[in-house]
Amino acid sequence: MMTPIRYIVFLALLGFGLQAQSFKEAEVSFISGESVYLRFEDTQGVQEGDTLYNLESGKACLAILRVSSVSCLAKSIGNCTIEKGMRFQMRLAVDVETAKEERLVEDEPILSGVQAESKEDSLAINKETGGSTKPSPKHNYLNIGLSTALTQSDNGRNNYRSALRTTFRMDSLFGQDLSLEAYGILKDYRRNYESEADPFRANLYNLALIYGAGEHHKISLGRKINRRVSSLGAIDGLQWEGSWNRWSVGAIAGSRPDFETFGYNPDLLQYGLYGAYDWQEKASSGQFSLGVLEQRNAGAIDRRYLYTQQNFSWGRFYAFASAEVDLYENFDTAAATNTAKLSSLYLSLRYRITDRWSVFASYDSRQQIIFFERYDTEVERLLAEQGARQGFRIRSDYRFFRATTLGLSYNWRSNPTFGNHSENLQAYLRQGNLPWIGGSLVYRFNKNQNGNLDSEINSLRYSRSFRQNWQISAYSRYVSYKYSFWDITLDPQMYYGLEFSKTFAQNWNIGLMGEYSQISDQDLIRVYLRINRKLRF
Question: Where are the beta strands (DSSP E) in 154-299?
Answer without folding.
Answer: 159-170, 178-191, 200-212, 217-225, 234-244, 247-257, 264-280, 284-297
